């Protein structure tokens, strides 16, 4: 056994526990509280197992799940950037790159390289796996917003145009899930007044 390797793996495992403390703006389905980054990642990983049959292209499910489980680890240092906060988005990439440099370097070199490449793949949005992961990242909060009767959308005064802009690439991973999301969750919440019309 390589003790140094195991020590570094355990250090990373302890470090990523901090993801449980990173709050998000989306409420749980029962609207009792807002979810955290770790819950968000777990939820999308399960969604990928269940919904991968709707991907536009065949995907490697394990690769996509791993991508989703690590894609927000950079928020341990960078913090969560709210989807509709245009000012925070201006510095998001810089903040997240700095954390990626730090957090993935904790791991043994081969694993750190793999995780960093997977994170970069998600960010680039070019592979079928990255596109489907983005679909999950956009679809999951829509499901929860609908389940909580649009609570977060209503509190923040979110407009339909903002949601459509945010979801502009959702269909690249799954046209079926984007259409379902739009018809089943988004437009009914516009009609209920939870999402503002432009």
UniProtKB/TrEMBL annotation:
Residues 16-178 form the HD domain. The keyword Nucleotide-binding does not apply. One of its GO terms (molecular function) is metal ion binding. Keywords: Hydrolase, Metal-binding. It holds the Pfam family HD_3. This is Putative hydrolases of HD superfamily. One of its GO terms (cellular component) is cytoplasm. The keyword Hydrolase applies. InterPro entries: HD_domain (IPR006674), YfbR/HDDC2 (IPR039356).
């Amino acid at each position: 056994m390589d003790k140094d390797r195991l020590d570094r793996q355990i250090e990373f495992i302890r470090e990523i526990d901090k993801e449980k403390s990173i709050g998000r703006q989306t409420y749980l389905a029962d609207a009792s509280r807002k979810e955290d980054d770790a819950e968000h990642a777990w939820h999308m990983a399960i969604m990928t197992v269940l919904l991968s049959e709707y991907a536009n292209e065949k995907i490697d499910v394990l690769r996509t799940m791993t991508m989703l489980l690590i894609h927000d680890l950079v928020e341990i240092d960078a913090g969560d950037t709210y989807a509709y906060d245009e000012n925070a988005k201006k510095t998001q990439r810089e903040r997240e790159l700095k954390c990626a440099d730090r957090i993935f370097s904790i791991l043994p070199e081969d694993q750190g390289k793999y995780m960093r490449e997977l994170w970069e793949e998600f960010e680039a949005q070019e592979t079928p796996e990255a596109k489907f992961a983005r679909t999950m990242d956009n679809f999951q909060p829509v499901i929860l917003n609908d389940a909580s009767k649009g609570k977060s959308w209503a509190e923040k005064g979110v407009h339909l145009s903002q949601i459509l802009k945010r979801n502009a690439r959702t269909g690249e991973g799954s046209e079926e899930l984007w259409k379902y999301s739009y018809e089943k969750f988004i437009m009914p919440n516009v009609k209920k007044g939870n999402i503002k019309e432009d």
